[in-house]
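Notes from the 1:1 (GR / supervisor)

We went over the backlog. Supervisor wanted to see one worked example end to end before approving the batch request, so GR pasted a single chain during the call. The sequence is below; no edits were made to it. Supervisor asked that the structure be written out right there so they could see what the output format looks like.
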Amino acid sequence: MSPLHRAGPADVRPVDETVRDDAYPLLRDERACVVIALRLGWWMADAYHHGQHAEPRPTVPAHPPAKLSNLTEMSAPRRMRMYLDGVDVALAQISALTRHTGSLPDTSAARTRLPDLDRLPDLEQSDTPDIEPLLLALDDLNVDVLRWAMATNLRVGLAYRLGRSLADTVRPGDAAQLLRRFDGRQIQLSRWLDELASVLPPYSAAVVRRSLTAWAVAVERAGRGDPTEPEPAELSRELRNQGDLWRGVLTGGLHPRDLLDEEDYAVVARNLIIRDRRLVAQAARGIFWPVLVPLLVVLFAVVGVSAAAAAGSPTTRATVALLGFGAGLAAIWRSVSGPALAVAGEVNRPLLDSELTARMALRLDRPLANARRAAGLPPPTRRAPRTRRAPRTRRQRPEEPGGPSKYVAPLSRADLP
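Structure output shown during the call:
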């Protein structure tokens, strides 16, 4: 059982053992709170969507099914009870992690409306199911949960809003609904991701933000009729699959690094080496005249005076000069290399993270790549970087996943006599 499900009063540590953040109340595990709140928001959005599109089906089947019922095969009342049970469990977990001692949002009002769904199979085809009271009760529950989460901890409330908005964004719909959902909503989602980046799983916020931006660009181009992008209907069919990947990454169920292969790491290493080479060249040009030239002038003067003052043959003087010059260069290297290596270590980490984030976001966009592949569109390629010299013509490797890696040796033919 995961630590999130073992949360209880017996597991709560004393207050003095918990690190205190003056901006927020005492938390046992803020990342766990944020992840649970994000799942809760997604769960509430799915519950409301299911209530809007409840299909008439007997609560208890007349005959045993051929196999155990799945989530999509459950009747509307059973599935709605499962959603409400999930809300109660998530609220109890967040309450235990945040040491909340007051009352929690109550799902009883929504549960009293569940018999309205039991009447669906008994209604005539021309009757309208009376599910409006249930939807109103669910919306009241959503408002109560939002108020409670925002009052308990700001980041928990933002995570709840993020999960709910992401679920509504990836909801199946027509082309007009798809264009309306990406008409500025992704900007607010990106802001929430930026604010929650420090408490979400590593790389998840940056990777999802890049993927969300790629989808927003693709939807905007498809709405303008750009021939390089699939039709909005095709994008809408793959958007739900993309949403499942976003949820898995943000909740820790899927680590973005698991999407990378050996070719991705090779590309990251190559790009990092190219960046390091440019940084070293720029740093050398920056310190050559103000730092290295004065040190070398002083070194040459000291070595020249020492060699001239040394007694003995010209060979002895040359030896003294070489030894002094070597010792001076070693001293200069020690004084310059220490800070330079420290700076390189500090700079290389964010550079490595940015390269990994770009590759992980590219691999996370598999549904978008599938939509483009289904429409018969070529995979997008990055433009060659600007250089002073004319760029050489190189064959661009497709950015989409799939296909054998060039870093893996091909299969050899059987050695037959």
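Supervisor's comment: Residues 71 and 246 are 21 Å apart (CA to CA).
Batch request approved.
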